[in-house]
Amino acid sequence: MDVVSDVLRVAGVRGTLGACVEAGGRWAVAGEDSSAAGLHAITAGEAWLTRAGHPPLRLGTGDVVVLEAGVPYVLGDAPGSPVTACDPVELARVQRTGEAVRFGTSAPDTRIVTIAYDCDRTVRTQLLFALPELMHVRGGTGADSLDDTVRMLGRELTHPQIASTTVLACLVDIALIQVLRAWLPARAGERRGTWLGMMGDPLVHRALQHLHADPARQWTTQTLAATVAASRSTLTRRFSAAVGLAPAAYLTRWRLDLAADRLRTTDQPVESIAAAVGYHSAPAFSRAFARSHGAPPSRYRTTHRPSRAGG
Q1: Which of 243, 223, 177 minimizes the C-alpha distance to 14?
Q2: Residue 309: pLDDT above 50?
Q3: Which residues contact 9 (CB under 8 A, 6 or more apart)?
Q4: Bridge partners of 164?
Q5: Given this structure, which CATH class describes domain 201-304?
Q6: How confident is the model at residue 254 (pLDDT cuts 50, 70, 90)?
Q7: What's the per-residue H, E or C state across the chain?
Q8: Cα–chain-centroid distance for residue 158?
Q9: Dihedral angle at the C-alpha atoms of 124, 127, 130, 131, nearest 10 degrees?
Q10: Which sequence spans correspond to the domains of the chain?
């Protein structure tokens, strides 16, 4: 069971290609106060990223940074360069057409691809919300798959071919995974107490794999501990330290997130969904769901079901 893919799917994490920037000479642009996490890949040249309260960060070709939602920043040719305001109408136009946004006082020598990542915010088990304020992966430092993805993004944008839109849509999602693969192995300890903390503890990772593989099973902390060959106290201590929740609390939250996903995306009766996520009593499920998601299942389904074209 790939728990990261499982959480990405249920949380509805989706990437959208944003502005493609071409810049040269003196230039700087301020990042929007976005509700989505933002990825910036330097496909050519270099840039400087500045944030309040942090030293400037030089970004070279192949470098990728991911900033959490709502973090203000400036990208430019050097720290302190005058910021150029973006024309929102022009920005919307070039995003529709796939053209690049141009900045600077001379011919472009820097190219940057920006991607925004958002999710279904009613889901409580989140990966995006567990990310740090900044993740930075340098190009050419052994993250070969990420380097390949950045190069492919640059080629598809610079030299569009048949089905480039489809290729870019796939690369946008792949890019986030490749950043996580490159950044997390050596930094998982920094995420202790969040969902990503499980990557730093093999015992907790195994326990999560079992919970995700069979969420309807009537797990207890004792049976889960036995399954991963640990004592109950050891599992409880390490699980809580890594993830920020006790095993039973995590399982309850995950079951209700799975139920929310089914309510939004299927026509299954509430009773069937309750049983599928481990509740033998539909009323008990409805009470737990209302506490977790702020509405009983039937009302949640009505409110959050995507509209159907022509319906």
Answers
A1: 177
A2: no
A3: none
A4: none
A5: mainly alpha
A6: very high
A7: CCHHHHHHHHCCCEEEEEEEEEEECCCEEECCCCCCEEEEEEEECCEEEECCCCCCEEECCCCEEEECCCCCCEEECCCCCCCCCCCHHHHHHHHHHCCCEEEECCCCCEEEEEEEEECCCCCCCCCHHHCCCEEEECCCCCCHHHHHHHHHHHHHHHCCCCCHHHHHHHHHHHHHHHHHHHHHHHHHHHHCCCHHHHHHCHHHHHHHHHHHHCCCCCCCHHHHHHHCCCCHHHHHHHHHHHHCCCHHHHHHHHHHHHHHHHHHHCCCCHHHHHHHCCCCCHHHHHHHHHHHHCCCHHHHHHHHCCCCCCC
A8: 26
A9: -150
A10: 3-188, 201-304
Distance between CA atoms of 308 and 139, rounded to whole angstroms? 43
Mean pLDDT for the chain overall = 91
Query: pTM of the full predicted structure?
Result: 0.88
Q: What confidence tens digit (pLDDT) does each residue in 186-215 have?
A: 787 788 899 888 988 999 999 999 999 999
At 142, list the tokens.
Answer: 């052994």
147: number of CA atoms within 13 Å, CB side? 9
Architecture of domain 3-188: Sandwich (2.60)
Residue 310 pLDDT:
44
Alpha-carbon gap, residue 81 to 47, rounded angstroms: 11
